[in-house]
Amino acid sequence: MNGANQPKHQLTDYVLDEIICPVARMRLLSEGINDNNRLLAYEAVIGDKACLSCGNCVDACPVVTENHGFIYLPNQRTSMALEHMVGLECRRCYRCIQSCPQVDKPIKEYAAGFRRGEKIIHLLTAISIVLLALSGMALAHYRDFLPPFETFALDVIHRVIGVILAGLPFFYFILDRKHLMRWLKKVFVWKKVDWFWTKRLILHIKDHRKNPMPYRGEFNTGQKAWYVFISLMIPMMTVTGGILLLGFRSDHTSFYATVKLLHITLAFITDIFLLIHVYLKYLRNWGLKIYAIVKSYKDRRHLNYYLP
After folding, report:
1. I want to staple 27 with a disulfide (CB 3.0 to 4.6 A). Which of 62, 87, 102, 155 is the partner?
2. What's the half-sphere exposure (Cβ side, CA atoms, 13 Å) at 18?
3. What are the two backbone dihedrals, phi and then psi, of residue 60, each rounded to the nearest 5 degrees?
4. pLDDT at 308
5. Treating both helix axes as pointing N-terminal to C-terminal, what angle do 116-142 and 177-187 enclose, rounded to 10 degrees?
C-alpha cells in the first residue's frame, strides 16, 4: 500500500473497521483470479472477481461455526450468504479474507496486520491481569507459609506486572493510536439500545429457551461494561498499589488498611468479571460443543455432530 494507492488504502481501512463481514468488498478491491492461477480453457480469463461459491469464507468464520455449525447447502456457501448469517456480529478476525482465493495477497497481508497492535494490547492486558491475580492471591493467602525467596520473587513479579499493566494504555497510544481512539468512542458512548440489551439479557437469564442471547457482536453492552470497568480499574489499582508499595503502616495504619481493602476489593471484582468474560467467550462454547458431541453419539452412534 504505497502513496499512489492512498485512496484504496483509506477505503480498505474503512471496510476493515466496520462490524460487517468484509470478504466480498475485499474481493472487489482485488484483481480477481487471472491467467496465472486459473487453468486456461479456450481463452485466458482475467479479472474474474465473482464469488466462486467455494465456501471457504463460510467455513472459516467463527460466528457461523458457533451459531450454525457446518453449512452444507451450496447456495449458502457464498460471501453473500456469509454476510446474511453473520449480520452485525462480525468479530473482525478477517479469517474470511485470508481464506478467499479471490482476494489479493497484499490485501490479505494488510488485513492480517491491521489490528495487530490492538490484539497485542488485548493479549498483554489479559496476561497481566491473570498474573496479578495469581501472584496477589498467593501473597494474600500464603505469605506466612511461603519460604522467604518465593515470597520475595512473588512480590517482585506482582509489582513489575502492575507497572506493565499501568503502562499499557500509553503503549496502546504509541502502538495504534487510531484504534485506541475508535475503542474509546465505542466504549464510552452509551445509547438507548444498551438499555434494551440489558433488558434482553435479563429475560434470557430468566428463560433462555424463549429469549435468545442478545447481540453478541463487537462492542455489545456487556463487552462495553467490561471495558469501562477495566479502564477505571487500571488507574485505581495503580494508585492504590503505589500507596501500598510506599507503605504507611506505622503512622497511618487506618489509611493503609482502607487502601489495602480497596485494592483487594478491586482485584476480587476484576477476577470475577474476568471469569465471566472467559466463560462467555470460551467455556460456554466449549461446553455446548461437548454437549453436541455427546448427544450425537447417543442418538446416532458417531462423534461428528455436524452430520444429520
Report:
1. 102
2. 15
3. -80, -20
4. 67
5. 70
SS3 content of the chain, % helix, strand, coil (to 5): 70, 0, 30
Distance between CA atoms of residues 99 and 23, nearest Å: 9
- The strand ranges marked E within the chain are none
Per-residue confidence (pLDDT) for residue 4, from 0 to 100: 43
| The length of the chain, given as a count of residues | 308
Q: How many helices (H) and strands (E) does the chain have?
A: 14, 0
User: Helices 148-175 and 221-246, interaxial angle, to 10°?
Assistant: 130
Q: Which three cell numbers stand for residue 173?
A: 497510544
Distance CA 84, CA 19 (A): 13
39-65 average pLDDT score: 77
Distance CA 226, CA 220 (A): 10
Residue 190 in this model has a pLDDT that exceeds 50: yes
* Helical packing angle, 177-187 and 221-246, nearest 10°: 110
Q: pLDDT above 70 covers what percent of the chain?
A: 90
Which single residue is written with the C-alpha cell 480477481?
32
Asked whether residue 116 carries a pLDDT value surpassing 50, the answer given is: yes
CA distance 239 to 232: 11
The CA–CA distances, whole Å, from 254 to 136, 250, 251, 258, 308 equal 21, 10, 9, 6, 66
Q: Residue 68 has what pLDDT? A: 86
CATH number of 116-300: 1.20.950.20
Write the Ramachandran bin of 34: left for phi over 0, alpha for psi from -120 to 50, otherwise beta.
beta
What does 172-212 look like in DSSP terms, one character per residue? HHHH-HHHHHHHHHHHT---HHHHHHHHHHHHHHH-TTTS-
